[in-house]
Design brief:
EC number: 4.1.1.23
InterPro entries: Aldolase_TIM (IPR013785), OMPdecase_AS (IPR018089), OMPdecase_type-2 (IPR011995), OMPdeCOase_dom (IPR001754), RibuloseP-bd_barrel (IPR011060)
Protein name: Orotidine 5'-phosphate decarboxylase
CATH superfamily: Aldolase class I
Number of domains: 1
GO molecular function, one term: orotidine-5'-phosphate decarboxylase activity
Shape: globular
Radius of gyration: 18 Å
CATH class: Alpha Beta
CATH architecture: Alpha-Beta Barrel
Distance between the termini: 30 Å
Helix content: 40-55%
Structural class: alpha/beta
Active site: 106
Length: 290
C-alpha cells in the first residue's frame, strides 16, 4: 500500500492534508516545547498546571493560523501521568480546531513493542493519536513496519529521522553500507518507496535538520525523490533562515515544513504577540521555500 492510496476508512491521507494546510497557512509548524526556562519566562510554575497553561495558550494563539503544531512529548512526560494527560488534551484540542498535530515522540522499537507504540500514537480513538508521529528507524527501517501500517491504514503520517542537526547524528546517519550507500540514503530510499505514486505528497516524511548544510549532498540523499514532507527543525532561534533553508533543501523546498519553537514561543505569553511571531515566521518560511 502506498501513502497516496485511499485509507480503509476513507480518510484523506496525511500527506494530502498537510500539503493543503501548507498551501493555506504557509509551510510552518509551531513546536509546543514547554522547557523549564520558557515556563519561567512566562511566569508559570514548573508543574502540570503551568504546563497546561503554557500548552493551551500556544494552541489558542496559533490554531487555525499555521499548518501544524508539534508538541514535544518528553517535555510533557517529565511531569508524569498529569503531564501525559495534558498532552492528550493538546492532541484533542488541536483536532477540534482542525489544526494538524504532529506528536514529537521519536518512538522506535521492534516487534510487539513497536506494535504497542503504533497502537498508542496511530490508532483511531487513542487519546495520544495526533495526525502524525516522529519515529526513529535506527533499529532498521523494517522495525517501523507496525507504525507504517497503522499510519497508512488510518490516514496518518510518520516523520522518520534521517539527517538530524545534533552533532552526534553523523556517527550513524553518514555511515556507509558495504555497497557504499549512506545509512541516511537508505532511510530516504525506503520512505520514497512507500510514497511512490502519491499526489501531491506521500505520508511518510523525513526529519531533516534545517542547519545541516550540505549533508544531504554529501550522503547522497535525494530529498526531492522522497515525494513526502520534510520536517525541518532548527528554523529561527536555532539559526536557520531563508539562506540556510534554500541551501539545505534546494529542489525539495516545496516539500518542507519548517519547524519553529523558541523563535515563536519566546514572544509569549501574550496571545497577540505569539500570533504576530507565528505569522512572521510563516511568511519568512514561505519566502524561503515557496
Amino acid at each position: 500500500m502506498t501513502s497516496g492510496a485511499a485509507t480503509p476508512g476513507g480518510a484523506t491521507p496525511f500527506g494530502a492534508r498537510l500539503a493543503a494546510a501548507m498551501d493555506e497557512h504557509g509551510p510552518l509548524c509551531v513546536g509546543i516545547d514547554p522547557h523549564v526556562g520558557l515556563l519561567d519566562a512566562w511566569g508559570l510554575t514548573d508543574d502540570a498546571a503551568g504546563l497546561r497553561t503554557f500548552a493551551l495558550t500556544v494552541l489558542d494563539a496559533v490554531a487555525g493560523r499555521v499548518a501544524a503544531v508539534k508538541p514535544q512529548s518528553a517535555l510533557f512526560e517529565r511531569h508524569g501521568s498529569a503531564g501525559v494527560a495534558v498532552l492528550e488534551e493538546v492532541v484533542a484540542a488541536g483536532r477540534e480546531t482542525g489544526t494538524l498535530v504532529i506528536v514529537d515522540a521519536k518512538r522506535g522499537d521492534i516487534g510487539s513493542t513497536m506494535d504497542g507504540y503504533a497502537d498508542a500514537y496511530l490508532r483511531d480513538g487513542s487519546p495520544l493519536a495526533g495526525d502524525a508521529l516522529t519515529v526513529s528507524p535506527y533499529l532498521g527501517f523494517g522495525s517501523l513496519d507496525p507504525a507504517v501500517d497503522a499510519a497508512l491504514a488510518s490516514g496518518r503520517g510518520l516523520f522518520v529521522l534521517c539527517l538530524t542537526s545534533n552533532k552526534e547524528g553523523h556517527e550513524v546517519q553518514h555511515a556507509r553500507t558495504e555497497d557504499g550507500v549512506s545509512v541516511a540514503a537508505v532511510m530516504a530510499g525506503r520512505a520514497a518507496a512507500l510514497n511512490a505514486g502519491a499526489d501531491p505528497l506521500g505520508s511518510i516524511g523525513l526529519v531533516v535538520g534545517a542547519t545541516i548544510g550540505d549533508s544531504a549532498a554529501r550522503t547522497g540523499v535525494d530529498l526531492a525523490a522522497v515525494n513526502g514532507p520534510l520536517l525541518a527543525p532548527g528554523v529561527g532561534a536555532q539559526g536557520a533562515g531563508p539562506r540556510e533553508l534554500a541551501a539545505v533543501f534546494g529542489a525539495a523546498r516545496r516539500q518542507v515544513l519548517a519547524s519553529s519553537s523558541r523563535g515563536v514561543l519566546r514572544a509569549g505569553p501574550d496571545l497577540a504577540a505569539l500570533r504576530t511571531a507565528a505569522r512572521t515566521a510563516a511568511h519568512e518560511a514561505a519566502a524561503a521555500l515557496r
